[in-house]
Amino acid sequence: MPARFISDSYRKEFADSISRVNIARAKITSLAFIVIELMIMLVTLFVRKGDFLERNELYYCLMYILMILAMSFYYLIFLGLEKKLRENGKKIQITGIFFTGFILLWCGGISLLDQLGSGEIMVYNIAAICIAVVPLFRALDMLLIYLPIHTAFLAALICLHRPGGLPFGDIVNSTAFVAISWVVSYMRFNGHAMSFNDTKLIEEKSAELEKTNEELREANKKLELLSLTDGLTGVSNRSMFDRTISLEWDRCRRQFITLSLIMVDIDYFKAFNDHYGHLAGDNCIRRVAETLSSCAKRGSDLVARYGGEEFAVILPCTDSNSAWELAELMRKRVEELRIPHAYSCISGFVTISLGVYSAQPSDEQPAEKLIENADKSLYEAKIRHNEVVVYGRPCGGKDFGGSSEEQ
Fold it and tell me: Starting at the edge strand that comes first in sequence, how are the strands of the sheet with 302-307 ordered?
């Protein structure tokens, strides 16, 4: 079971991470032992030559061969278990315990052979420390490895002691090494578990923070959209118009294309508002805005409430003829709404007047010139009422307020 530090939702993932680490380290350890034992055997064969029996080298060589065969066997097993890591989690744990136990047992055997010569147990002590540092096992698993093997090692050590008394120093030293190794293993495993859990908590907090940031970004987008949208009609407001007309003027100037502007005014709206009331007036403005938007369908077109009952329509890449046709369509569609207006001097229904101006932006003139000339067209249209006037080309073909060269 994973350490107590791990949240229940991450226990399986933690077990997988432990299996992955242990398999990787077991494979490296296996290969390292194979290479080292082969080198030791070659050195023994060529340096010591035929002194095996006299120096007990034959027993050592048999131990080396045993280690090479065992490590090759375990390496192949770990390769197979690695292919299905999650499914083989329990098998990996059990195999890792036997693998680690074999190494400690083998090193104990080497130290016992050393008792016949130098009397050192350094190999066993080093092995006890190494298996505490390399693999990641629970405290109980390490106890199952250390306790039986160390008990057997001490029993064999006592049996092989030299004349003159028990090897008390070796017993104390090896036991101390094993105890310290077990503590180190316990601390490493729990430290790894705490680090894993902290990482997951950080990831959770990061994900929550990212979600919160995304929600804030969406909220900011909505706020920005609201700040640029007219609350009554839902079309763009004056701020959005001012921003867009400047951007489109610069863009059309760079690309040498025509920019058109339609200014719209509801005829006799004050009389409508005074007699039908503000609620009816607001509803009238909303319906006119919807109609204008339904006519300006291109993604680059912008319908904005310019102020009160006035609207403005920005039309990039649109010449004066196309702009006039669209304005005429808007005029007819609003008239087709047949919103009653008994106080209009020209019709029994709500009508609109529209002024149109088209120009190819240049460095010599600012965007305000486009608005100024479109306003002039609207002024002329409002004198006539329910009509579309194009600056420089009024109805009847007579110029006013300028000439066609200004287009």
Answer: 302-307, 310-316, 259-266, 352-359, 388-390
Which phi and psi (to 5°) does residue 268 adopt? 50, 45
Please tell me the distance from the alpha carbon of residue 64 to that of residue 44, in angstroms, as a whole number. Answer: 11
What are the residue ranges in the chain where pLDDT is below 50? 1-2, 394-407
CA separation for the pair 317, 259 (Å, rounded): 5
Helix (H), strand (E) at residue 196: helix 168-227
Is the distance from CB of 116 to CB of 56 less than 8 angstroms?
A: yes
What are the extents of the domains in the chain?
A: 8-206, 238-406
pLDDT at 271: 94
Q: What topology is assigned to 238-406 in CATH?
A: Alpha-Beta Plaits (3.30.70)
pLDDT of residue 235: 93
pLDDT of amino acid 113: 86
- Contact assessment for residue 323 and residue 260, using Cβ atoms and an 8 Å cutoff: yes
Check if the beta carbon of residue 181 is closer than 8 Å to that of residue 129. yes
Q: What is the pLDDT of residue 365?
A: 84
Helix axes 122-133, 139-159, angle to 10 degrees: 180
Identify the pLDDT of residue 405. 32
CA angle 314, 317, 319 (to 5 degrees): 90
Residues 6+ apart with CB under 8 A from 109: 63
Quick check: is 309 catalytic?
yes
Torsion of CA 161, 163, 166, 168, to 10 degrees: -90
CA 314, CA 374: separation in Å to the nearest integer? 11
pLDDT of residue 402: 37
Largest interatomic CA distance in the chain? 134
3-class state of residue 236 by DSSP: strand
How far apart CA 311 and CA 296 sit, in angstroms, is 13
C-beta separation of 230 from 237 below 8 A: yes
Global pTM?
A: 0.58
Task: Point out the catalytic residue in the list 37, 57, 248, 309.
Answer: 309
